[in-house]
Amino acid sequence: MLLPVAVLDLVAAVFLLRNVTALNSPKIDVLSIVLSSLGFGGLLYGSSIAGTAGWGSPEVVATLAGSILALTGFIYRQLKLKSPMLEFRVFRYGKFTLSTLLVIIVFIALLGELMLLPIYTQNMLGCTALESGLMLMPGGIIMGILSPVTGKIYDKIGAKWLAIMGLSIVAFSTFMLTHLEPDTSLLYLAIVNSLTMIGVAMVLMPLTTSALNQLPSRLIPHGTAMTNTLRQVAGAIGSAVLINVMTNSALDPVKFGIDGSVHGVNVAFEVVTYVCLAGLILALFEKRKSERTSGTQYEAMENLANRTVGGNE
After folding, report:
1. pLDDT exceeding 90 applies to what percent of the chain?
2. Torsion of CA 206, 141, 119, 104, to 10 degrees
3. CA atoms of 64 and 60, how far apart (whole Å)
């Protein structure tokens, strides 16, 4: 049933979609692919094994150190290439950097909750996968409904107050998950998760738009690629770290039983809460409105950036 629909979508895209940006044919840089794979993959692998091997173990330290070196080489190469895989010069624009960082924080909180709650409900409450999915479903529906609404609100008031209110809601809802018990009801979890999705809807898309609005037109595709890449990488690494926190914080199952495992989940949600509070502080520095900068201002910023780089472009 899904295959014919997908084919129809592809056929419609061929005739209806139009390119809105200039096309180019960049060459594939094999060294960049190798360095990025070693760098990002090493960070994820090192974060994953730290839970069992320990953050100070030689394997973890060597993996993380090697990944940092690979990422350093990757970034340096991107700054030298005429057609980089990822354009790191987008971070010259401070408002883009701040908005992207806030998006990453919210995305980590989102993935953390969507990962930890099913583990808690299925492994500690004894629920089925269907019951866990039904518990999360209201939040997904609410987020889908609110996303276009928050977009219209963003057009009127900008990103700052949406970011502050959204992060406040996410921080509060994750805090409500730091005192779970072995018999916490699914209704409570569904309500708290729905509250989280309200906060995420107020932050995710508005701040992504705000970040891209800080860039000149030629850098918008690069900004989109950078935001999507960092969001996925940070989400994967953040999820691995939270699993490690949950595992290492669990108490002795022989002595404490299921309460020991629940304690690990509570500690993991405490970490998510602290991350959201840090994002809330950063949101205070978000600009109130996010209209695109004028062409004259962009020209001045570009000239300054070019002089700073010294002609690398």
Report:
1. 55
2. -10
3. 6
